[in-house]
Amino acid sequence: MLGGCGCAWADTGVDDQTRQQAFNLTAFVADGCVLGQAGDDPLSLGALDFGQHAVLVSDVVASTSLGQGSVAFRCTPGLTIVVTMNPGLHAMDVSGGRYLERAGGADTLRYQLFQDGGHAVVWGDGGNGGSAYSLTATGELQVLTVHGRLYAQAVGASGDYGDTVRVTVSF
Questions:
Q1: Tens digit of each residue's pLDDT, the chain (171 residues)
Q2: What's the whole-model pTM score?
Q3: Which residues, 6+ apart, have CB-to-CB distance to 47 below 8 Å?
Q4: Residue at 130 is within a domain
Q5: In sequence order, which residues have a C-beta less than 8 Å from that of residue 32 and are 6 or more positions away?
Q6: In this structure, what CATH number is given to the domain that contains residue 105?
């Protein structure tokens, strides 16, 4: 008998033909911002509510909070951010005030939005009678409070009054 060894060969599970190769993983962080906050409607900034009034014999002031009209955003760290607001649906510029309009009617109530609690700096875009707001992004959720003033004035018919102001975050 030739070449007989009487050996038992076991399968070790090792394939002498195995080859290995690595692959790379990459990511790119682009400059950008997300406006709004996480939640049921991440694109909504909420609403600033001046409350219910029968007459307006004195100014009514209100400030926003997160989810209730504050400007919330998260941007790539280090970006210079400019936040602007348009005059709303019922005003051409903000120098004379903005206006809430009665649903289904033409009655209006004059109001204004401010960057500060002292009501000195009007929110705008730098060209519509108000000022833009500039800051540096931190990469975390940043929240800007909006301060509002509903001016003392003669009121029109009862009903719901409203306006929509567009907020723009530029970088």
A1: 555 566 566 666 666 788 899 999 999 999 999 988 755 565 678 899 999 999 999 999 999 988 888 999 999 999 999 999 999 999 999 999 999 999 998 899 999 999 999 999 999 999 999 999 999 999 999 999 999 999 999 999 999 999 999 999 999
A2: 0.83
A3: 68, 69
A4: yes
A5: 75, 76, 171
A6: 2.60.40.1090
